[in-house]
Amino acid sequence: MPTLTDDLAGRLAELRAAGLHRERRRVESIDGTRIRINGRDLLNFSSNDYLGLRDHPRLVEAATRALGIWGTGSGAARLVCGSLDPHHRLEEAIAAWKGVPAALAFSSGHAAAVGTIPALVGKDDIVVVDRLVHACCVDAARLSGARLRVFRHNDLGDLERILKWADGLAMERRPRVLVVTESVFSMDGDRAPLRELVELKERHGAWLMLDEAHATGLFGATRAGLAEAEGVGDRVEIQMGTLGKALGCEGGYIAGSVLLVDFLVNRARSFVFSTAPSPAIAAAAAEAVALVGGHEGKDRADRTWQRASEFVGPGKKASSAILPWIVGAEADALDIASGLRDAGFFVPAIRYPTVARGAARLRFTVTANHTPAEIAALKAATESLGRKQ
After folding, report:
1. pLDDT at 324 over 70
2. Would the CA dihedral through 220, 224, 226, 232 be positive or negative?
3. Which of 84, 201, 212, 290 has the maximal Cβ count within 10 Å?
């Protein structure tokens, strides 16, 4: 048996040979849409801070005020003595915004998924996921021990085939069937056919868990997400989201019924056994919810949509703020990312296992803080590197 050092060295060499090795990049400073890496300023088109709220004065002030009152940490898990007033205020704000009775905050979106799915279903149940759903939901489904089935991306016919199979299972207890999908998909930027999906799961008595991570802040009358925009929020049993993208903070949440939240408080292991999130971040996130749901949130969302329209070009319509350039080979994607860095743009190559093998890409994201001139410069750079409009 090799030593751990020799074994890891060999596996890392394999990753490098396949063009799949990754490394952390130290960001030395951030100034609006520009970041400094290795002493060089680059225009950033890879952030999920879609509304540009990360350093908004209202959020900074809310966090600073909470720091003065509560300090830096919560001191314990929520079920011990760490369930502080800012956490409850945040959950009340999320629930009101989502138009549901209750919400529960987690330390991350990943923690929300891996806590919720195994709490709701087990070995005698079925989880059905879209093929492109986020890895945290796949991990959670596997962790639950339920039978995992995958339907072709946004293919309602394939989903119905699986739901009919589940309906026909001869079991002592009808299995719980949980369908999991995203509203806006994180790597392709396309949307789920949400209204039709809701109608389908209702016909078969299934539950729906909807990850609104990349729709929050951009869709709906109050920017609460695609469920709000499609008018089906009250028909989605489990709404999941993150505080770390359009809301400019960190953490995740589950929103739904009082019974759902009560059950997760008791059974979601990533909630029960984790120290509560920082009260300062919770306070900032509550302020972000208020901001996004108001007039300034609308103005910022409108700017983001305008920048996305400018990037895709005349006669085309962006589905979201995520605008991928699918290249194919990992090496080609790395070469293009390097070329963009040479031109002053930061857009890392996205490779397997984040996306399928042979589907490597540049994942451009636009924000409310980007200017038309910056979008035009990026378009010129991508065209010079072979991207067709």
Report:
1. yes
2. negative
3. 212
Does 226 lie in the same domain as 143? yes
CATH number at residue 325: 3.90.1150.10
The closest of 208, 148, 164, 207 to 182, measured between CA atoms, is 208
Q: Report whether pLDDT(279) > 80.
A: yes
The residues assigned a catalytic role are: 48, 134, 182, 186, 211, 214, 245
* Exposure class string for 69-82: b at 16+ Cβ within 10 A, else e: ebeeebeeebeeeb
Q: What is the mean pLDDT of the chain?
A: 96
62 contacts 278 by C-beta, under 8 angstroms: no
Residue 6 lies in a domain: no
Q: In the numeric block, which tokens belong to residue 321?
A: 């703020």
Domain span holding position 288: 57-292
Residue 211 banded pLDDT, cuts 50, 70, 90: very high
Domain-located, residue 304: no
Contact 87, 142 (CB under 8 A): no
pTM of the model: 0.94
Closest CA to 207 of 165, 171, 246, 260: 260
**Nearest-angstrom CA–CA distance, 320 and 376:** 18
> Would residue 218 count as lying in a domain?
yes
Please determine, for residue 92, whether its predicted confidence score (pLDDT) is greater than 90. Answer: yes
Whether 146 and 41 map to the same domain: the answer is no
Nearest to 210 by CA among 160, 257, 246, 255: 255
Q: Which one, of 219, 374, 218, 362, lies nearest residue 310 by Cα?
A: 374
